[in-house]
Amino acid sequence: MTSEGWGTPPVEPISQHYIVCGGNALAHRLVLELVEHYDVPVVVLVADRTRDHAPQIEQLAGVAAVVEYTSVTEEALRAVSIGTARGLALVEGSDQENIHAALSAQNHNPDIRIVFRMFNQRLGENIERLLRNGAALSGSATAAPAFASAALGRPNSVEVEGRYLHIAFDDDITSDRICVVADQIDRQDVGRIRLLPEQQGDSAEFVRLASEFGDDGPIRPGGVRREPASSADSEPAGESERAEESGELGELGESGGSEDSRGPEDSGDSGERPADGQGGKAALQVLRIEPREPIGWRRRLRWRLLDTMRFFTSARMRLVLLTALAAVLLAFGVLWYLNRNFGWTVYIALLDLAGAAQPDQLADISAGTGTGGFWQRVAQVVITICGITFAPVATAIAVEVLGSGRRGQPRNPGAGTREHVIVVGLGNVGTRVATQLHDMGVPVVCMERDPQARGIAAVRALGIPVVLGDGPFEQQLRRARLKHSRALVAVSGDDATNLEAALEARHGNPEVRVVVRLFEDDFASHFYRTLDNAASRSVSYLAAPAFAAALMGREVRGTLSVLRHVLLIAELKVEDGSGLIGLNRHDLEDPGGVRVIAVRFAHGGPLQWNFPDRTRRLAPGDQIVVAATRSGLARLNTTAVEAAE
Asked: If you write DSSP's letter for every residue of 537-570 in order, what string do you get?
């Protein structure tokens, strides 16, 4: 390859297209999003057409061209017709390279929409101010909450103006939920799941009859008798009564399935309805605060005491120290019994431990003026001798702690580490996952084979233990105290390495929960069928919908995992000239695609959740928050564009 680069530029002049720069997994998923859900022409710029995901990208139907250049240079941008493109996505390369490419693209096309990947989110926000129409996103930050939540066995959450939206399953569904986001959940047949099913309630049968007979339809004597309906068309009576009390008719959910199932990509718009009692539901709910993982102070204190014992590598030494401690406590009890003065007893015991004891003088004993008797002298001698044992150990502990800090070495997990999560791989995603778990109060231990990994310094600054080395996983996991861990999250960049870590962890601790980063869906489905208490997530699968929506000008607040599927929480603002003007909830909502969950009108005020008026039309300045599937958000974008035209 020459330094100028080579490839297959578009044979015919192309315009109004979207450019994706990158050949990694995220680029692959993003191209799929654009060609399958948004149906737009895509030109892909890759560094090497024979490596990574470039060969698979080239085979995708809907890709206009794949152009090869070693880097995103001025010539490369001209080769992909940057001047006539509608959008540019930079999803590969370092932060510095993406910033330079974004600024160069804006010089060629001031009106182009630019979305670029940035690990440093604070820097990305500042760069956005330099662009006329740009957005900085972090794939690792988008996907990390799903991995952290999966490790804890719960769905992740998305913050919207101080409220945290999350997906509830089974008995966790409460009466104050926002809407049902999935039904027909079946672990044995995960392909039956339907996302954002059509809302049903007590009025559903009457609406059906009105649609069937029209205005001139017959009126049955004695009123309309409701016919039996399948579980997907009706609700239990108790659920309907609770709906009337809460004012949320038609958005009730029954008990749902599990977080640990994995299904196909964004299916759920089709499928037969199950018989009564089959399939569960999942609902979108609001929490006032982000849920944490509280750990009692008693357990923390116990772990701290046990952690201190890690300095004592010899079992014989531990026996000696425990014996000395028992002797000191017994001698202290003797002193207290003889003097009946707790404060004085503590004082004299501490002096004895430090080697500064004040023994009785022989003259005082002969005169009968000594401060104690025989047993007090024995107790003081015992405490003093035991103090000789404790002093060097305490000194060694202090030297070890201070010396490790000065050397800047990562802290190894101590013997007191319990109920922790092991994070394998300290790349972008692993660093984000470890940081988020630490912020939630969950003990974390990290494992990394590359001593130069960028995440080591970040987690060390938080005091998170790190196990370094390129040894066998069995040995490394033992150092990470696998037997006492609650979960393992394998998020390295290699599927085989992640799977190896998960299988080795399950072999060493059959009860540990494993969360694995896998790209291939078929690979992950086999993984689910083989292991229980396991979950799989794909970083590109979680992040690509957010990048695609941002490329179309939609602000995605976050993604929620509904089993293996993705639900997007997006915020749309109605601006002058927008195609959303004049649309109401009936126009916006689409079963299996879009559900409006909150509205804020132009006159201001807080978000109104589950706004009941479905006929009010949007006006400039209004703002809506929607829960949507990937295809649903794409259809909403198409509807808005068509309405504007």
From this structure: E-HHHHHHHHHHHHHTT-EEEEEEEETTEEEEEE
